[in-house]
C-alpha cells in the first residue's frame, strides 16, 4: 500500500491526515486516518466518491463537512 499525506483546508485551518491507497482486482480504495478513525473512500455504483466509516465511529463524531472536504480533495486530484 502506498502511503501519503492528505492536505485539507477546513473552516479556515490547514489540516493534514495520513492516507493509504489500496489496490484490489476490482479497483482502488483510499484509507484516511481522521483523528484515529479509519475512513474508507471509494467509488459507488454511480461513479461518485463516498466515505465509509466503521461501526465503532459512532462513538467518535467526525464532522460531515470535514469528510466532504476530504472527498473534495480527492475529486480535485482525480485519484480514483
Helix coverage percent:
10-25%
Distance between the termini: 15 Å
Number of domains: 1
- The quaternary structure here is single chain
Annotation, overall tally of beta strands: 5
Radius of gyration: 12 Å
Average per-residue pLDDT, rounded, comes to: 90
Derived structural class? alpha+beta
Descriptive overview:
- The chain is of the alpha+beta class.
- It has one domain.
- 18% of the residues lie in helices and 50% in strands.
- The chain contains one helix and five strands; from the N terminus they run βββββα.
- The chain has one helix spanning 64-77, and strands at 2-10, 13-24, 27-34, 37-43, 49-52.
- The longest helix has 14 residues, at 64-77.
- The radius of gyration is 12 Å and the shape is globular.
- It starts with a strand and ends with a helix.
Task: Summarize this structure as a short list of keywords or feature phrases.
alpha+beta; single chain; 50% strand; 1 helix; 80 residues; 5-stranded antiparallel sheet
Amino acid at each position: 500500500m502506498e502511503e501519503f499525506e492528505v492536505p485539507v483546508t477546513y473552516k479556515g485551518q490547514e489540516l493534514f491526515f495520513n492516507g493509504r491507497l489500496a489496490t484490489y482486482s476490482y479497483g482502488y480504495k483510499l484509507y484516511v486516518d481522521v483523528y484515529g478513525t479509519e475512513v474508507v473512500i471509494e467509488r459507488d455504483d454511480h461513479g461518485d466518491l463516498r466515505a465509509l466509516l466503521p461501526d465503532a465511529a459512532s462513538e467518535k463524531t467526525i464532522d460531515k463537512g470535514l469528510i466532504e472536504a476530504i472527498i473534495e480533495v480527492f475529486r480535485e486530484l482525480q485519484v480514483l
